[in-house]
Write a structure and sequence with these properties.
It contains two helices and no strands. The chain is an all-alpha fold. Helix 1 packs across helix 2.
């Protein structure tokens, strides 16, 4: 039994040596991995510092650009207000022209109807129509001048 115990002790010793060999290999691999992680973290800190500087510069440039765009848009407000005023003026002018044209047509119709009623047959009234058209044009020009003054 003595030999048996010595064999068991020898097997345990060999197993312990093998276990220690693999444990040392694992610790070496972990050590190299930790060194790589340490280097990577150091590089990452450097990269983050550089990126944060670039981001700060980009934010500053964006702020300046936003202020510039706001200033330019404010200067365009005058142009848009002017265009709005011109649109309202043209709308008013168009309305006045419609009313003038309607009045002119009504005047011409009334004169033509009076002539038919008075004589019983329609007569050509080129002189009267021309006169009514001339009056309409003159009225339109007066209205246009008044609108231009305002």
């Amino acid at each position: 039994m003595d030999i048996f115990i010595q064999i068991i002790i020898a097997v345990i010793t060999v197993a312990f040596v093998i276990l220690m060999f693999f444990l040392i290999q694992t610790i070496k691999a972990l050590t190299s991995t930790l060194n790589e992680v340490r280097n990577t973290v150091g590089e990452l800190r450097t990269d983050v510092s550089e990126i944060s500087g670039d981001v700060k510069e980009m934010i500053h440039n964006t702020t300046e650009m936003t202020l510039d765009v706001r200033t330019k848009l404010r200067s365009l407000d005058v142009v848009f207000a002017t265009v709005h005023d011109i649109g309202q003026t043209l709308h008013s002018f168009t309305g006045v022209m419609k009313e003038t044209a309607a009045g002119l047509v009504a005047t011409v119709k009334n004169k033509a109807q009076r002539e038919v009623y008075d004589s019983g047959t329609p007569r050509p009234s080129n002189g009267r129509i021309t006169s009514a058209i001339t009056d309409g044009i003159i009225s339109s020009l007066r209205i246009w001048r008044k609108l231009k003054q305002h």
